[in-house]
Structure formats: C-alpha cells, structure tokens
C-alpha cells in the first residue's frame, strides 16, 4: 500500500510537470540499488542528507556510499524545491570543478540563470589564477558571472557565499583530494552538504 501511494504521488507530480516518468521498485540495500541503476542514467537525484533535530541536516547512513561510488553526477535534494535563478560554482581549478562550470554554462544558456563562481584559496594570488581560469572558460560562451574569492574554512565559507548571493543551487566537484584522504579528514563535500540548506549537484 505504501509503494502504491508513492507511485500514485510520483505519477501525479510528473503529469503536472509534463515530465515522462518510469517508476521502478527494488528490494535490497538502497545505496547499492541506486548505484547499479545510476550506470544507465545521466543524473541521480537522491536524499543523501536528511533533517536532524540537533544539527539541522545530517548524512543519511544508508546513502553515504553513493558519494564515493556513483558513476554519474548526483543532485542532492536539500530543503524545498527552488527555481534556478542563481547558481554558485564551487571552483578550485580541478577537472571536476571544470565539469561544474560546464553545468553552470548550460544553466545560464537554457534557463538564464545567474552564475556565481566562488573559490576559497590560501592566498590572493592563488585565487586570482583560479578565477582567471574559470573566466577564460565561461566568457567564450557569453556567460556573465560574478567571480568571488574568500579565505576561511572551505565548506562553511562556500555556504556563506551562497547565502550572501542568494544562490538556489550549488555545483561542486566530488573530491579535491583522494577519496581515502577525504574520508580520513571528514571531507569538504560532506561538510558542505550538511550546511548547504539548498540543493547541491555533485559532479
């Protein structure tokens, strides 16, 4: 009965939005089932973070493995749905961050989203070089962006910039360091997801 109710709600929402929907039911470990299906799709939307009475948001234990082993980008649903009026790219100059720039350029062209490119650097010189790289990527596509740099704890500073600019979506690469080192240090990505308060697309 619960699955039937979910199916009916999903189909009704898809019909209202004019979206084609296939509804499938799997039994087993949620993260494993989603990882297997993610190999056949372009984007996975998943509730990796859930409300927490004391901390606001926390990583859902049964979905944590998705961040490290999913073959496609993940849109982490956090908080209520928002329009894509303004997106923030967490940019560090890496290959995954370049993928985030690509998505931002698409959003700007398709939905006229405003783009904020944000970097958190150890030095002003380093920030300038990183932002210049982002600018050289976006300008040929006629994407006008607000380029912002700050210093501080990376996750908290990125979320603060998203708050200051009123961003509806954050785009960020999955791992700056090796996945083993990220898990050992606690991970900028995980801390960002817990603090974001808005959807985050992880590439």
Summarize the structure.
The protein is α/β, with parallel strands linked by helices and 203 residues long. 43% of the residues lie in helices and 19% in strands. A hairpin with a 3-residue loop joins strand 2 (49-52) and strand 3.
In what range is the share of β-strand residues?
Answer: 15-25%
Principal-axes geometry comes out as globular
Strand order of the largest sheet: 1-4-9-8-5-6-7
CA radius of gyration: 18 Å
Which structural class is indicated by helix and strand composition?
Answer: alpha/beta
Helix and strand sequence: HHEEEHEEHEHEHEHHE
Largest sheet features: 7 strands, mixed
Instruction: List low-pLDDT spans.
Output: none
Oligomer: single chain
What does this protein structure show overall?
By secondary structure, the protein is of the alpha/beta class. 43% of the residues lie in helices and 19% in strands. It has helices spanning 2-17, 30-38, 66-69, 95-111, 124-138, 154-165, 179-185, 188-195, and strands spanning 44-46, 49-52, 56-59, 74-76, 86-90, 114-120, 145-150, 169-172, 200-202. Strands 1-4-9-8-5-6-7 form a 7-stranded mixed sheet, with helices on both faces. Helix 5 (124-138) links the parallel strand 6 and strand 7. Helix 6 (154-165) packs parallel to helix 8 (188-195). The radius of gyration is 18 Å and the shape is globular. 30% of the residues are buried. The mean pLDDT is 86.
Features:
203 residues; alpha/beta; 7-stranded mixed β-sheet; two-stranded antiparallel sheet; 8 helices; 19% strand
């Amino acid at each position: 009965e619960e699955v039937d109710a979910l199916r009916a709600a999903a189909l009704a929402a898809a019909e209202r939005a004019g979206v084609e929907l296939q509804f499938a039911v799997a039994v087993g470990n949620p993260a494993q089932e989603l990882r297997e299906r993610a190999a056949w799709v372009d984007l996975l939307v998943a509730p990796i973070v859930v409300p927490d009475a004391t901390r606001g948001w926390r990583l859902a234990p049964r979905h944590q493995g998705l961040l490290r082993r999913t073959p496609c980008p993940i849109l982490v649903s956090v908080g209520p749905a928002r329009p894509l009026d303004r997106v923030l790219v967490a940019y560090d100059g890496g290959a995954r961050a370049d993928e985030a720039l690509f998505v931002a350029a698409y959003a700007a062209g398709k939905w006229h989203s405003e783009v904020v490119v944000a970097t958190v650097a150890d030095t002003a010189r380093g920030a300038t070089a990183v932002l210049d790289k982002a600018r050289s990527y976006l300008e040929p596509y006629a994407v006008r962006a607000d380029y912002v740099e700050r210093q501080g704890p990376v996750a908290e500073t990125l979320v603060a910039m998203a708050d200051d600019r009123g961003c509806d979506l954050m785009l960020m690469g999955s791992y700056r360091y090796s996945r083993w080192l990220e898990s050992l240090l606690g991970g900028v990505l995980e801390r960002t997801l817990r603090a974001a308060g808005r959807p985050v697309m992880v590439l």
